[in-house]
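Quick one: structure for this chain?
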Amino acid sequence: MTDASRHSGTLIVGGGVIGLSIGWRLLQRGEPVTILERGEAGQEASSAAAGMLSIANEVHYQEDLNLLLRMESMRLYPDFVSELESFAGSSVDYRTEGAIAISLHADDTAELKNLFEYQLERKLPVRWMSGEEVRELEPGVAGFVVAGVMCPMDHQVNNRLLVSTLRAAFLKAGGTLREHCEVSELRMEDGRPPAIVAQGEEWRPARVVLAAGSWSGLIPGLDGWLRPLVRPVKGQILALRMPSPDFLVHMLKTPDVYMAPKSDGRLVIGATVEEVGFNRDFTAGAGYELLKGAWRAMPSVYELPIDEMWCGFRPGSRDNAPLLGETGVEGFYVATGHYRNGIVNTPITAKYMSELILDGNRPELLLKLSPGRFASGA
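Got it. Here's what it folds into:
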């Protein structure tokens, strides 16, 4: 086995947007960083997402912790994007038109009204709209749309551009990226950060950050309470090719699907939520349901060509909130379990984790997201 213990900085396991952004922030502070990625950087959940930065439209009862984290991250997003694009020299297609949630019949409207009232309770800047007002903004929606809720703070990026831009920024800042380098063991040693074994090499870094998404709990050597309680939640997504940029301008949340128009001409439609492990099949049933849901809201999608179909695996935790912070083992940190919110939570995760590692900062919200919060009930 080759000894790679000369690396004295931080080693990050996982090269998605979470690992890349943490690494970039650490490098900006002068910390040497190596990322080990089992495949190609950002090509799992980070690239499979739709790139929606949803605040109001992702509000769920009993998930206020997630909401607080997303709101903190969205406050950072404009400056984060500006700094990243300027440093890397490329765009992530940050769009701020907002999102509209719509209802198609009376039952939908009652459910939408309940959501709207909950959004108002949480002091989110949302606005109720009639069907006519929805169609004034988006003429392509179905004539029978009953009502809508405008969510102006729900923005979006092209997540694939975010991946490539973060990768470029990480490398430009001096980071080391080892792709196709799967970790075969995380070896615990008393009083020291874990040693990492991958591709016949052993690393003994000063710090280790586990940010491997849905694969975070599968690395040999993680036993008991140290094994992150994350699971893969499959999402199937497809993209249509829009005929013009004004086909759909706002993101649209329907009772069945979401629809996210991209500046490259794609209309991304998703996404299923399936507990089927790592099954990568794109199924006929999923494709049918996605297209049907989109067609009900916008009948003109019937004529659009299918551009692409794919699936991804969201890293889900027990409460759908991420696992961020210290593990109790010297120099060993976790940043995983972002579920549906990995893209929107990228800036805040990078800030919290880099400042924890280098400065020891532990804000209250980060402490609430501790990887050990499930230990007593495990």
